[in-house]
Amino acid sequence: MQIFNHIAEIKNYLRKEQKNGKIIGFVPTMGYLHEGHLSLIRRAANENDMAIVSIFVNPTQFGPAEDFERYPRDLQRDVNLAQQAGANVIFTPDVAEMYPQGYKTYVEVQEITNTLCGASRPGHFRGVTTIVTKLFSIVRPDRAYFGQKDAQQAIVIQQMTKDLDMDVEIMVCPIVREKDGLAMSSRNVYLNPQEREQAVVLSESLALAKKLIIQGERDAFKIKAAIVDKITQKPLAKIDYVSIVDAQTLKDIHHITNRVLIALAVKFGSTRLIDNIIVEV
Ligand code: PAF
To answer: CA-to-CA distance for 140 and 176, rounded, in angstroms?
Structure first.
Protein backbone atom coordinates (compact mmCIF):
# COMPACT_ATOMS: atom_id res chain seq x y z
CA MET A 1 0.00 0.00 0.00
CA GLN A 2 1.21 3.49 -0.91
CA ILE A 3 0.86 6.52 1.37
CA PHE A 4 1.02 10.04 -0.04
CA ASN A 5 1.09 13.39 1.76
CA HIS A 6 1.55 15.61 -1.27
CA ILE A 7 -0.92 16.45 -4.02
CA ALA A 8 1.64 16.42 -6.83
CA GLU A 9 2.87 12.95 -5.85
CA ILE A 10 -0.51 11.23 -5.62
CA LYS A 11 -1.66 12.92 -8.85
CA ASN A 12 1.42 11.71 -10.65
CA TYR A 13 0.94 8.16 -9.33
CA LEU A 14 -2.79 7.97 -10.07
CA ARG A 15 -2.59 9.51 -13.55
CA LYS A 16 -0.22 6.69 -14.56
CA GLU A 17 -2.57 4.07 -13.13
CA GLN A 18 -5.54 5.68 -14.89
CA LYS A 19 -3.63 5.79 -18.20
CA ASN A 20 -3.23 2.03 -17.78
CA GLY A 21 -7.02 1.75 -17.56
CA LYS A 22 -7.38 1.33 -13.80
CA ILE A 23 -10.85 2.10 -12.42
CA ILE A 24 -10.60 4.06 -9.19
CA GLY A 25 -12.89 3.81 -6.16
CA PHE A 26 -12.44 6.60 -3.62
CA VAL A 27 -13.40 6.85 0.06
CA PRO A 28 -12.92 10.32 1.54
CA THR A 29 -12.68 10.25 5.35
CA MET A 30 -11.57 12.36 8.28
CA GLY A 31 -9.85 9.32 9.79
CA TYR A 32 -10.36 7.60 13.13
CA LEU A 33 -11.81 4.83 11.03
CA HIS A 34 -14.61 2.63 12.31
CA GLU A 35 -16.58 -0.26 10.82
CA GLY A 36 -18.73 2.21 8.83
CA HIS A 37 -15.66 3.55 6.98
CA LEU A 38 -14.26 0.04 6.58
CA SER A 39 -17.47 -1.13 4.91
CA LEU A 40 -17.03 1.68 2.35
CA ILE A 41 -13.38 0.77 1.77
CA ARG A 42 -14.21 -2.92 1.31
CA ARG A 43 -16.88 -2.03 -1.20
CA ALA A 44 -14.59 0.37 -3.06
CA ALA A 45 -11.93 -2.37 -3.21
CA ASN A 46 -14.44 -4.96 -4.46
CA GLU A 47 -16.06 -2.82 -7.12
CA ASN A 48 -12.97 -1.11 -8.61
CA ASP A 49 -9.39 -1.90 -9.63
CA MET A 50 -8.02 0.32 -6.87
CA ALA A 51 -9.36 1.73 -3.60
CA ILE A 52 -8.03 5.14 -2.56
CA VAL A 53 -8.72 6.46 0.95
CA SER A 54 -8.15 10.05 2.02
CA ILE A 55 -7.64 10.89 5.66
CA PHE A 56 -7.92 14.61 6.29
CA VAL A 57 -9.63 16.44 9.14
CA ASN A 58 -10.99 19.32 7.12
CA PRO A 59 -10.93 22.58 9.11
CA THR A 60 -13.34 24.45 6.81
CA GLN A 61 -16.27 22.20 7.71
CA PHE A 62 -16.00 22.89 11.45
CA GLY A 63 -17.55 25.97 13.04
CA PRO A 64 -15.40 28.14 15.35
CA ALA A 65 -16.93 26.57 18.49
CA GLU A 66 -16.82 23.00 17.14
CA ASP A 67 -14.44 20.11 17.77
CA PHE A 68 -11.79 20.53 15.02
CA GLU A 69 -8.89 20.60 17.50
CA ARG A 70 -10.04 17.65 19.57
CA TYR A 71 -11.40 15.55 16.68
CA PRO A 72 -9.90 12.07 17.29
CA ARG A 73 -6.82 11.29 15.20
CA ASP A 74 -4.70 8.12 15.01
CA LEU A 75 -2.99 7.80 11.65
CA GLN A 76 -1.07 4.57 12.34
CA ARG A 77 -4.23 2.78 13.44
CA ASP A 78 -6.10 4.13 10.39
CA VAL A 79 -3.36 3.01 8.00
CA ASN A 80 -3.49 -0.54 9.38
CA LEU A 81 -7.28 -0.74 9.29
CA ALA A 82 -7.54 0.73 5.79
CA GLN A 83 -4.92 -1.69 4.49
CA GLN A 84 -6.72 -4.69 6.03
CA ALA A 85 -9.97 -3.50 4.41
CA GLY A 86 -8.32 -3.47 0.98
CA ALA A 87 -7.10 0.11 0.44
CA ASN A 88 -4.31 0.42 -2.14
CA VAL A 89 -3.48 4.07 -1.52
CA ILE A 90 -3.86 6.46 1.39
CA PHE A 91 -3.76 10.21 0.86
CA THR A 92 -3.16 12.12 4.06
CA PRO A 93 -2.21 15.72 3.35
CA ASP A 94 -1.75 18.40 6.01
CA VAL A 95 -3.85 21.55 6.20
CA ALA A 96 -1.26 23.74 4.45
CA GLU A 97 -1.15 21.29 1.53
CA MET A 98 -4.91 21.53 0.99
CA TYR A 99 -5.36 25.20 1.92
CA PRO A 100 -2.06 26.95 1.17
CA GLN A 101 -1.63 30.64 1.95
CA GLY A 102 -3.70 32.70 -0.42
CA TYR A 103 -6.39 30.02 -0.85
CA LYS A 104 -9.62 31.72 -2.01
CA THR A 105 -12.02 29.27 -3.67
CA TYR A 106 -15.11 27.68 -2.10
CA VAL A 107 -17.88 25.52 -3.55
CA GLU A 108 -21.41 26.08 -2.31
CA VAL A 109 -24.60 24.12 -2.96
CA GLN A 110 -27.65 26.25 -2.25
CA GLU A 111 -31.03 25.59 -0.53
CA ILE A 112 -30.56 21.94 0.49
CA THR A 113 -27.63 23.02 2.67
CA ASN A 114 -29.78 25.41 4.74
CA THR A 115 -31.92 22.80 6.50
CA LEU A 116 -31.22 19.99 9.00
CA CYS A 117 -27.49 19.97 9.88
CA GLY A 118 -26.93 23.01 7.66
CA ALA A 119 -29.24 25.08 9.88
CA SER A 120 -27.38 24.21 13.08
CA ARG A 121 -23.91 24.19 11.49
CA PRO A 122 -23.69 27.25 9.22
CA GLY A 123 -20.88 26.93 6.70
CA HIS A 124 -20.45 23.20 7.35
CA PHE A 125 -21.57 22.02 3.92
CA ARG A 126 -19.59 24.75 2.15
CA GLY A 127 -16.51 23.25 3.79
CA VAL A 128 -17.55 19.71 2.83
CA THR A 129 -18.30 20.51 -0.82
CA THR A 130 -15.09 22.52 -1.13
CA ILE A 131 -12.86 19.74 0.19
CA VAL A 132 -14.70 17.00 -1.69
CA THR A 133 -14.33 18.98 -4.93
CA LYS A 134 -10.61 19.39 -4.29
CA LEU A 135 -10.24 15.69 -3.45
CA PHE A 136 -12.18 14.70 -6.56
CA SER A 137 -9.96 16.83 -8.78
CA ILE A 138 -6.84 15.33 -7.19
CA VAL A 139 -7.99 11.69 -7.27
CA ARG A 140 -10.37 11.81 -10.29
CA PRO A 141 -12.27 8.75 -9.04
CA ASP A 142 -14.72 6.77 -11.15
CA ARG A 143 -16.78 6.05 -8.04
CA ALA A 144 -16.83 7.71 -4.62
CA TYR A 145 -18.31 6.09 -1.52
CA PHE A 146 -20.22 7.90 1.23
CA GLY A 147 -22.22 6.66 4.22
CA GLN A 148 -25.98 7.04 4.53
CA LYS A 149 -25.44 8.15 8.14
CA ASP A 150 -24.56 11.57 6.75
CA ALA A 151 -27.72 11.52 4.63
CA GLN A 152 -27.76 15.24 3.90
CA GLN A 153 -24.07 15.22 2.98
CA ALA A 154 -24.71 12.42 0.46
CA ILE A 155 -27.60 14.35 -1.12
CA VAL A 156 -25.59 17.59 -1.24
CA ILE A 157 -22.66 15.82 -2.91
CA GLN A 158 -24.96 14.13 -5.44
CA GLN A 159 -26.42 17.55 -6.27
CA MET A 160 -22.96 19.09 -6.58
CA THR A 161 -21.59 16.39 -8.89
CA LYS A 162 -24.72 16.65 -11.06
CA ASP A 163 -24.65 20.47 -11.20
CA LEU A 164 -20.91 20.65 -11.92
CA ASP A 165 -20.94 17.75 -14.42
CA MET A 166 -18.36 15.84 -12.42
CA ASP A 167 -17.54 12.44 -13.92
CA VAL A 168 -17.92 10.46 -10.72
CA GLU A 169 -20.58 8.06 -9.57
CA ILE A 170 -21.67 8.66 -5.98
CA MET A 171 -22.29 5.43 -4.09
CA VAL A 172 -24.27 5.77 -0.87
CA CYS A 173 -23.79 2.84 1.50
CA PRO A 174 -25.91 1.66 4.47
CA ILE A 175 -25.42 2.88 8.03
CA VAL A 176 -23.33 0.50 10.12
CA ARG A 177 -24.53 0.20 13.71
CA GLU A 178 -23.21 -1.03 17.04
CA LYS A 179 -24.98 -4.12 18.47
CA ASP A 180 -27.42 -1.95 20.44
CA GLY A 181 -28.29 0.15 17.36
CA LEU A 182 -26.11 3.24 17.86
CA ALA A 183 -24.88 4.41 14.46
CA MET A 184 -21.09 4.17 14.21
CA SER A 185 -19.33 7.52 14.33
CA SER A 186 -15.81 8.69 15.11
CA ARG A 187 -17.42 11.03 17.64
CA ASN A 188 -18.85 8.13 19.71
CA VAL A 189 -15.52 8.00 21.56
CA TYR A 190 -16.41 11.33 23.21
CA LEU A 191 -19.36 9.77 25.06
CA ASN A 192 -18.99 8.89 28.74
CA PRO A 193 -20.57 5.58 29.86
CA GLN A 194 -23.91 7.17 30.87
CA GLU A 195 -24.13 9.16 27.63
CA ARG A 196 -23.21 6.07 25.61
CA GLU A 197 -25.98 4.10 27.29
CA GLN A 198 -28.58 6.80 26.64
CA ALA A 199 -27.41 7.47 23.05
CA VAL A 200 -29.20 4.31 21.91
CA VAL A 201 -32.36 6.43 22.06
CA LEU A 202 -31.53 7.88 18.61
CA SER A 203 -31.96 4.57 16.78
CA GLU A 204 -34.79 3.51 19.12
CA SER A 205 -36.79 6.64 18.35
CA LEU A 206 -36.27 6.15 14.60
CA ALA A 207 -37.47 2.55 14.94
CA LEU A 208 -40.53 3.83 16.79
CA ALA A 209 -41.23 6.33 13.98
CA LYS A 210 -40.98 3.57 11.39
CA LYS A 211 -43.33 1.38 13.42
CA LEU A 212 -45.91 4.19 13.64
CA ILE A 213 -45.76 4.70 9.86
CA ILE A 214 -46.11 0.96 9.22
CA GLN A 215 -49.14 0.98 11.54
CA GLY A 216 -50.70 3.65 9.32
CA GLU A 217 -49.79 6.98 10.93
CA ARG A 218 -49.23 9.60 8.21
CA ASP A 219 -49.19 12.81 10.24
CA ALA A 220 -45.56 13.95 10.43
CA PHE A 221 -46.28 16.21 13.44
CA LYS A 222 -47.57 13.26 15.46
CA ILE A 223 -44.59 11.12 14.49
CA LYS A 224 -42.18 13.92 15.37
CA ALA A 225 -43.93 14.38 18.72
CA ALA A 226 -43.52 10.67 19.47
CA ILE A 227 -39.79 10.87 18.64
CA VAL A 228 -39.31 13.98 20.79
CA ASP A 229 -41.21 12.35 23.64
CA LYS A 230 -39.01 9.25 23.50
CA ILE A 231 -35.75 11.21 23.33
CA THR A 232 -36.65 13.59 26.16
CA GLN A 233 -37.12 10.61 28.47
CA LYS A 234 -33.31 10.42 28.48
CA PRO A 235 -32.10 13.10 30.89
CA LEU A 236 -28.70 13.62 29.18
CA ALA A 237 -30.16 14.06 25.67
CA LYS A 238 -30.66 17.56 24.25
CA ILE A 239 -32.44 17.65 20.89
CA ASP A 240 -30.88 19.79 18.17
CA TYR A 241 -33.49 18.84 15.55
CA VAL A 242 -35.98 16.14 14.64
CA SER A 243 -37.12 16.46 11.02
CA ILE A 244 -39.29 14.56 8.59
CA VAL A 245 -38.45 15.65 5.07
CA ASP A 246 -38.78 14.52 1.48
CA ALA A 247 -35.87 12.14 0.94
CA GLN A 248 -34.85 13.92 -2.26
CA THR A 249 -35.62 17.63 -1.81
CA LEU A 250 -35.14 17.74 1.99
CA LYS A 251 -38.27 19.88 2.21
CA ASP A 252 -40.44 19.50 5.33
CA ILE A 253 -43.31 17.07 5.00
CA HIS A 254 -46.60 17.34 6.87
CA HIS A 255 -48.46 14.39 5.45
CA ILE A 256 -46.44 11.30 4.59
CA THR A 257 -47.22 9.99 1.13
CA ASN A 258 -43.91 9.07 -0.37
CA ARG A 259 -40.29 8.37 0.49
CA VAL A 260 -39.34 10.30 3.60
CA LEU A 261 -36.11 10.90 5.45
CA ILE A 262 -36.52 11.03 9.20
CA ALA A 263 -33.37 12.69 10.50
CA LEU A 264 -32.28 13.78 13.91
CA ALA A 265 -29.41 15.41 15.73
CA VAL A 266 -29.10 15.08 19.49
CA LYS A 267 -26.45 16.38 21.85
CA PHE A 268 -25.06 14.51 24.81
CA GLY A 269 -22.92 17.01 26.69
CA SER A 270 -20.81 18.60 23.97
CA THR A 271 -21.11 15.57 21.65
CA ARG A 272 -23.53 16.01 18.78
CA LEU A 273 -24.79 12.74 17.27
CA ILE A 274 -26.86 12.30 14.12
CA ASP A 275 -28.90 9.42 12.78
CA ASN A 276 -31.60 8.88 10.17
CA ILE A 277 -33.86 6.40 8.48
CA ILE A 278 -35.60 6.39 5.11
CA VAL A 279 -39.18 5.13 5.12
CA GLU A 280 -41.24 4.46 1.97
CA VAL A 281 -45.01 4.27 2.03
O1 PAF B 1 -17.97 12.50 5.98
C2 PAF B 1 -16.82 12.91 6.25
O3 PAF B 1 -16.03 12.27 6.95
C4 PAF B 1 -16.38 14.26 5.71
O5 PAF B 1 -17.44 15.17 5.72
C6 PAF B 1 -15.73 14.18 4.33
C7 PAF B 1 -16.71 13.70 3.28
C8 PAF B 1 -14.54 13.24 4.37
C9 PAF B 1 -15.22 15.56 3.91
O10 PAF B 1 -14.27 16.06 4.80
So the answer is: 27
